[in-house]
Amino acid sequence: MKPLQLSAETALNLSEKLNVPIEQLMHMPQHILIQKLMELEKEKN
């Protein structure tokens, strides 16, 4: 599986929001990342 195609800035923002180290974020499967982002959105609302 190839690493996610994210800009460095996006990766930094996501790792801060999800409290995950950048290395872990870059190797995270895309569907898991999307799932975590959805959970974050739900918490905001």
In a few lines, what is going on in this structure?
The protein is mainly alpha-helical.
- Overall mean pLDDT: 87
Q: What share of the residues lie within helices?
A: 55-70%
- Please count the beta strands (DSSP E, at least 2 residues each): 0
Strand content: under 5%
- What distance lies between the first and last C-alpha atoms, to the nearest angstrom? 33 Å
Q: What composes the largest sheet?
A: none
Overall 3D form: globular
Class based on secondary structure composition and strand pairing:
mainly alpha
Integer-rounded radius of gyration: 10 Å
Helix and strand succession? Answer: HHH
Uncertain spans: none
Number of helices: 3
Secondary-structure blueprint of this entry?
Blueprint: H1 8-18, H2 22-26, H3 30-44
Describe what this molecule looks like in 3D:
It holds the Pfam family YycC. By secondary structure, the chain is mainly α. The protein has helices spanning 8-18, 22-26, 30-44. The radius of gyration is 10 Å and the shape is globular.
